[in-house]
Model the fold of this input.
Amino acid sequence: MELTEAIRSRRMVRSFAADPIDSEAVDGILQAALRAPSAGNTRGVAWLILEGPETASYWEHATDDAWRAAYERYPGMSRAPVIALSLCSPTAYVERYGEPDKVTSGLGPDRGGEAAWPVPYWWGDAAFSTMLVLLGATAAGLGAAFLGVFRGEAALLEALGVPGGWRLFGAVLLGRPDGQDRPSPSLGRSPDAGAGVVHRSRW
Done:
């Protein structure tokens, strides 16, 4: 599938078949994601892949009983055979921007650390890499959904043995759509809502 077609056809899938997917396909998607832009060539983004029964750890720590009982899409999402966790290291970026070729940025460890960054590049780089995973899944004929993680981050990372200093940007569910997904209510928003327009020369 060509890039323009993957961009045009990509959408979030929230109901999956439980069938496992080929590990080579997953590896290919993740290898492409590691080609995402990296500020200062820091390479402070990593992926942690959970497959099959391992995915239960994500749902256990990143959700709770009340959410799972109330959210009607949970059963379909929980069948995703792969969950890819997008991680980033703020420390790696702070240290990189304290090196001689970046020190004039004023963003190194002796200039206030993470708090000195008006735009934290680690989140941007994690987002770039995540977008490539979403597009790669579409190009591979798979379904994908991005989930923000609003609870349980520390407990999840500890359970998975992630070293200190890493942050969780979000999770990508990967699998084959089961055909039972329903359109998101968000698609009903007016096309005039938000600011998704292009301006030239002036706003």
In short: The longest strand covers residues 167-175.
